[in-house]
Structures are given as structure tokens and as C-alpha cells.
Amino acid sequence: MKHLILTGFMGSGKTTVGKVLASSLNLPFVDLDAVIKGESGLFSDAYILRFGEKTFRKIEKNCLRKILTGPACVLATGGGAVLDNQNRQRMLHQGFVVWLKTPSRLLLPRLKSGHSRPLLPRPLSQKNLKKILDQRLPFYRQCHFTLSVANRSPKELAILIMNQYRKLRCTPTS
Ligand code: S3P
């Protein structure tokens, strides 16, 4: 059985959808940022502020590698985990990779009201958000399955993902 891996930009709802999926599939839920916190004692945002993005990407890569060699789980990745080629190859090999595709118009209000994220563009406008989102699109597009989150609840998204995951026989249908 393969890992079920959620990717997508910050604010796409990976954690929310991941938890629904994990409980429906009876699989453990793992949040990459939480594993990094466990390893380093720092939330990802605080880690980036203290040590910089480059060092963060190293610990992120290390934690991701360890999770992927462990038992099957539903994994919510950080939005930038796909930027590294080895990360992408590992995820594609060892998991079923889903991209929660979210337009910048939906992300903007979520990110404005959420906690401060150091890698978000400043000022946080739709135009600036779209710029960074566009830079990442080629990486998100390399997933196995793309799902638009627009007009879909976390539960609806989870059902559509599970159907696909089962169709590909990544998990038993019972
Ligand atoms: C990041 C996304 C964050 C976190 C870190 C970097 C990114 O996770 O890993 O701040 O580069 O997109 P979420 O996508 O869960 O917010």
C-alpha cells in the first residue's frame, strides 16, 4: 500500500483534507511540518525565520525521506516540498501524489487571516501571490492526480481522492 500524499500551495487545505482522508481510510495522518517541529523543536515558520529557507529545505528533505520509508500514511506536505527534485521523485515513487489545486483568489483571504508565513510575498496581494504560485505550478503539475478545491468541501475532496486512490489499487477496497 502506498502513502497518500497531499501537495499544494500554503492555504490549500492539505491538513484539513488529510485528516478526513486518514480517518476514512484508517491510516495514520502525518503532517510534514509537525514532524519537522518534532525534530527541531520549532514550527516551520519560526525555523525559516531563524535559520533561513535553505537550511529549512534540508531538514524538510530529511524528514520527508524518513516518513516515506515508514509505514503507509496520509501525508500533508508543506507547500514547498515539491520544489526539490529528489523530494518529487521520492514522493512519486513511494506514494500516490495529489495536488489540491487552489486559485489565488481563494488562497488570498485564507492566507491573510492565517498565521504569518515568512515565505509569502509582501505585500500579500493577489498579483504577488499569483506570481509565486505560477513559479510553482510546473512542480505541482507533476503529481499523479490533480483536484480543484473550488466549490468542494474537505469531505467531498476526500471522497474524490479516495475513489482515485482505490481505483489505482493503492489500497484494498473493503
Ligand atoms: C512552505 C509552506 C509551509 C511550511 C513552510 C514553507 C512553502 O507549509 O512548510 O512555511 O514553502 O510553501 P504549509 O503549506 O502547510 O503552509
So what's the overall shape? globular
Mean pLDDT: 94
Strand content: 5-15%
Q: How many DSSP E strands?
A: 5
Number of helices: 8
- Secondary-structure element sequence? EHEHHHEHEHHEH
Q: Order of strands across the widest beta sheet?
A: 2-3-1-4-5
Distance between the termini: 13 Å
Could you estimate the helical fraction of the residues in percent? 40-55%
Low-confidence segments: none
What structural class do the secondary elements suggest?
alpha/beta
How would you portray this structure in words?
- This protein is an alpha/beta fold.
- Helices cover 55% and strands 13% of the residues.
- It has eight helices and five strands, in the order βαβαααβαβααβα.
- It has helices at residues 14-25, 32-40, 44-51, 53-69, 85-94, 104-113, 126-140, 154-167; strands spanning 3-7, 29-31, 74-76, 95-101, 145-148.
- It has a five-stranded parallel sheet with strand order 2-3-1-4-5.
- Helix 1 packs across helix 8 and helix 3 packs across helix 4 (53-69).
- It is globular and about 45 Å long.
- The two termini are 13 Å apart.
- The mean pLDDT is 94.
- Bound molecules: shikimate-3-phosphate.
- Shikimate-3-phosphate binds at residues 10, 14, 33, 44-45, 48, 78-80, 117, 119.
- Shikimate-3-phosphate (S3P) binds at residues 10, 14, 33, 44-45, 48, 78-80, 117, 119.
What's this model, at a glance?
The protein has helices at 14-25, 32-40, 44-51, 53-69, 85-94, 104-113, 126-140, 154-167; strands at 3-7, 29-31, 74-76, 95-101, 145-148. It is an alpha/beta fold.
